[in-house]
Amino acid sequence: MFDRDSRTEAPSPRRRQQAREKGSVARSQDLNSAVLLLGAAMTLSFIGAGMIDGLGEILKSLIRQAGTVKFDDASTAILIRRQVFAVAKILLPFLLTIMIIGVLVNVTQVGFHISWKAAAPKWERLNPITGFQRFFSVRSLVELGKSILKLLFVGLALYFTLQTASLQTPWMFFMPTNQIIGEMGRLLNDLFFAAAMALLAIGLADLFYQRWDHEQSLKMTKEEVKEEAKQQEGDPKVKGKIRELMIRSSLKRMMKSVPEADVVITNPVHLAVAIKYDRAQNSAPIVVAKGARKVAERIKEIAAENGVPIVENKPLARALFKSVDIGMERPVDLYKAVAEVLAYVYRIKNKFFGVA
């Protein structure tokens, strides 16, 4: 109880999936039992008479053969095998129907899922201390309450069914044997149906409780939510280190492009943008490097070391820094300004440059 009080956060999809893989699902065994009993009662109401007739014929056949068959090891084995197959053939439709109903009611509750972890032995259940704690837990009290309700509901259902049937009992003394057997079969089927309906009411209520209890058991503490977020998204410290390494690697590659630039346009202190124009590969000048503050200082240092001209143009440097990413061509509205700077640089270098 105290542990659940601290679990205030809704369970995450990952926690739900982990619980499902372990076989922890919201399922009502009482509902399973009620639906199986109801299915058995309804199935017997349709094919019960045929099953009794078939079993009766097998019994009659055995009685007829009792004085004519010589019993030895071989004949006894053949006789037993034949009768087992005959009985199985009669009971098979009923058993298959019950099995299909059992599968359907489970799939309806929790979906189709096979968990091998749930089938594995749980040695902690052998611990007497935990067993004692389970005995006095809230769940055990709920199970006790359900048992009392089942006794009450089923008892009342059987009582009213037998009370109704008792009105017809005197007439059974005047019926033929076959009809009495049929009436007894119908009475048993009515008892099964009444008990199943009583259990079904309890099972539906139990299903809602099991789903609520399962949801409560999956709730998480704030610490568990944070820990799961770390596991899924990664430790923030590790992510920060990776981001730092990526930035360093990107800066290193960018700095290698500065010596190939035609000009570095500066703010002059805070910004630096390196421009390169290769007529054979690009239709317009492209930005090969840019940076602010320390990065800008480093760009200017590399440019100076490699003889790349550095031109101060505050408006153009700010515009290029904000609007053009590395590897992109300059925008149309900056075409003239960039062309003038490159023309100036080419004139200094005695290079030819044509402006479209």
What does this structure look like?
- The chain is mainly alpha-helical.
- It folds into 2 domains: about 1-230, no CATH class; about 255-350, 3-Layer(aba) Sandwich (name from scop).
- The protein is about 70% helix and about 5% strand.
- The protein contains 13 helices and 4 strands.
- It has a 4-stranded mixed β-sheet, sandwiched between helices.
- A hairpin with a 4-residue loop joins β1 (about 265) and β2.
- The longest helix is centred in the middle third of the chain and has 42 residues, at about 175-220.
- The model is unreliable at about 350-355 (pLDDT under 50).
Q: Calculate the terminal CA-CA distance, rounded to whole Å.
A: 80 Å
Low-pLDDT residue spans = 351-356
Q: What is the makeup of the main sheet? A: 4 strands, mixed
Query: Which overall shape is indicated by the principal axes computed on the Cα atoms?
Result: elongated
Q: What's the number of domains? A: 2
Taken as a percent bin, the fraction of beta residues is: 5-15%
Number of helices: 13
Share in helix? 55-70%
Q: What is the SS-derived class?
A: mainly alpha
Please compute the radius of gyration using only Cα atoms.
43 Å
Q: Please state the average pLDDT score.
A: 77
Question: Widest sheet: strand order?
Answer: 3-2-1-4
Number of distinct beta strands = 4
Question: SSE order in H/E notation?
Answer: HHHHHHHHHHEEEHEHH
List its traits.
name from scop; 4-stranded mixed sheet; disordered C terminus
